[in-house]
Specification:
One of its GO terms (molecular function) is DNA binding. By secondary structure, the chain is α/β, with parallel strands linked by helices. It has two domains: 79 residues, 434 Repressor (Amino-terminal Domain) (Orthogonal Bundle), CATH 1.10.260.40; 195 residues, Endonuclease, Chain A (2-Layer Sandwich), CATH 3.30.870. A seven-stranded mixed sheet has the order 1-7-6-5-2-3-4. A hairpin with a 3-residue loop joins strand 6 and strand 7. Helix 2 packs across helix 3, helix 4 packs antiparallel against helix 5 and helix 12 runs antiparallel to helix 14. The longest helix has 20 residues. The N and C termini lie far apart (53 Å).
Length: 282
């Protein structure tokens, strides 16, 4: 069964194609005739019972004299084809392989923009924090226990932070500093690590949205933007990869709004250190 988000994406694509046909003042039968298709194909595509392929999109736009929409519509088709992967398939052999599946993407990406509201992003986690977090995932999902291998794979990701030529922008909610993912000693080490990231790292910016801050919007999901062509959104059952240019641009706009609401440098360190003091009871 298709996920609700994929069904919704198919419906949006179908509606957009119908709109383009109507703007061209063509009936479904006339479009099909000019395209050299069976007359029922247009109806099936517009009712989302048949997915158009990339050539269908090109022909549809050519017949409707709307070729300026080809790039976005083909991106939408590709996005639907690859947008959703169930965690149970990625994690079938344990978390190490799932962690390693990100390696090619991390090597190829030059700019990372990451928003996480209530947890520290994996690229910034200490070993103790990563171990506690992945242990929870293994227990919750009931998957093979390869905890130590998964932790090592996650920490190896962090080599990209110093690989040269890449840029990283991380935004977290203040709740990420407070969520007790691990014990007090390990949380203190994690907070110290985050404080270090606020100084002397020209390739990386780390911002915190104060709990009393008022960003222009607060997205319901965490998201990672890779360069300007792909967004990853993690949900409980699976992972979405969003590649449609207009959708990616919307996430970029959301990230800019969140970045404007965050504090950096000394102000971020003050929040981090205050949280660490509370943790120590001082």
């Amino acid at each position: 069964m298709a996920s609700p988000r994929i069904t919704e994406a198919k419906g949006i694509l179908a509606a957009r194609l119908r709109e383009i046909r109507n703007e061209a003042s063509l009936t479904g039968r006339s479009l099909a005739s000019r395209a050299g298709w069976h007359y029922s194909k247009v109806s099936k595509i517009e009712h989302a019972s048949q997915m158009p392929n990339e050539n269908d999109i090109r022909v549809w736009c050519r017949v409707c004299d709307a070729e300026e929409y080809v790039v976005d519509l083909i991106a939408a088709v590709r996005n639907i084809d690859s947008m959703y992967t169930e965690w149970r398939r990625l994690e079938a052999t344990g978390l190490r392989h799932m962690q390693e599946s990100f390696n090619p993407l991390y090597r190829e990406t030059q700019q990372f923009r990451v928003f996480q509201h209530s947890a520290v992003p994996g690229l910034l986690q200490t070993a103790g924090y990563a171990r506690a977090h992945l242990r929870t995932v293994i227990a919750f999902r009931g998957i093979p226990d390869d905890l130590e291998q998964a932790v090592r794979a996650r920490l190896r990701h962090q080599e990209v932070l110093t690989s040269g030529g890449k840029r990283f922008m991380f935004i977290v909610g203040e709740q990420a500093l407070r969520t007790p993912v691990c014990d007090a000693e390990e949380m203190s080490a994690q907070l110290a690590r985050l404080a270090e990231l606020t100084i002397n790292m020209p390739q990386l910016s780390f911002g915190v949205i104060p709990a009393r801050g008022r960003p222009a919007l607060m997205p319901p999901e965490n998201f990672w933007i890779y360069d300007d062509n792909q967004v990853r959104v993690d949900t409980i059952p699976g992972q979405y990869r969003i590649k449609t240019p207009t959708d990616v641009a919307l996430y970029e706009k959301a990230f800019s709004a969140l970045a404007d609401a965050a504090v950096y440098g000394q102000a971020a360190r003050d929040l981090i250190n205050a949280t660490a003091d509370e943790l120590r009871g001082t």
